[in-house]
Amino acid sequence: MSQTPPPFPTQDPNGPPVPPPYGSGPAPRRAAGLAIAALVVGIVAFLTGLVPVFGALVGITAVVLAILALRKQQSKGLAVTGLVLGALATLSSIGTAAGIGALVNSDEVRSAAVVTSSPAPIADAADDASEAAGDESSAPSEAASEAAPEQPAVPVEYASALVKAESYSEMMHMSKAGIYDQLTSEYGEQFTAEAAQYAVDTIDADWNANALAKAKDYQANMAMSPAAIHDQLTSEYGEQFLPAEADWAIAHLND
Q: What is the pLDDT of residues 111-140, one digit of tens each?
């Protein structure tokens, strides 16, 4: 009687090892390059999400890479994480750009309303002399008016810096030092130091009230302790309020 041969070759005890059947080896690992790239770009986009335009561009790049990775059936976890981070960064960047645009438009409307006064014309000295000779009674009053100095007109840049400073104080509750840095920053308003100094010296702002508004914001949105809020208010890398202003804010934090 004939026997049915085995489906696969058997191992000869004295012979060389028999190779495994075709297709029975370990499955090849899927490439995850796009998924990893989507995750890395998504993290960078999330960290720069508050930067207008740039954050949105990086976020969109992360979303595109994540979609390509999902279509190529690469690591789903990495791709989805990059997709979510990129989307959040894009929305944050667009929202920040929209807010800054609205702020700039409102400031430009207010700046257009600033009217600088023109100096009064100077009377001719010869006419004044002839009038003084003809009417001795009016000579003292005319001499006094000529001697009075004219009020200099405020330069347009100074007036614009003041409008910006008022906007930052009323809408963002910034400190005096913080407004000055924003006005003179090369990444901010780029006013001259003289114009910025005029603005912060002239503005009618309640710095204690601004510090209190910032403190309440940190307490409500970030659940910070009073001591941590005080440090944030006075930090040179934070709000840059004076210690006395920060003390007043902490004292009235729960009013």
A: 665 545 444 444 455 566 556 555 555 555
Helices (H), 155-192: 156-172, 176-184
CA dist., res. 116 & res. 155, Å (int): 8
The conformation of residue 123, written as its DSSP 8-state character, comes to P
The better pLDDT of the pair 100, 31 is held by: 100
CA distances in angstroms from 252 to 76, 152, 211, 223, 238, listed in the order given: 50, 42, 10, 16, 20
- Tell me the C-alpha to C-alpha distance, in Å, between residue 156 and each of 11, 153, 185, 188: 96, 9, 19, 18
Mean predicted lDDT score pLDDT of the chain: 78
Distance of alpha carbon 218 from alpha carbon 117, whole angstroms? 43
How far is it, in rounded angstroms, from Cα 238 to Cα 73? 45
Identity (one letter) of the amino acid at 175? S
Stated as kind and residue range, the H or E segment containing 208 is helix 207-222
What's the mean pLDDT in 72-97? 81
Q: What is the spatial distance between Cα 128 and Cα 58, in angstroms, rounded to a whole number? A: 71
Spatial contact of 55 and 93, defined as CB atoms under 8 Å apart: yes
| Cα 128 to Cα 107: distance, rounded to the nearest angstrom | 45
pTM check: above 0.90? no
Structure tokens at 27: 């499955």
The answer to whether residues 56 and 97 touch, using CB atoms and an 8 Å cutoff, is yes
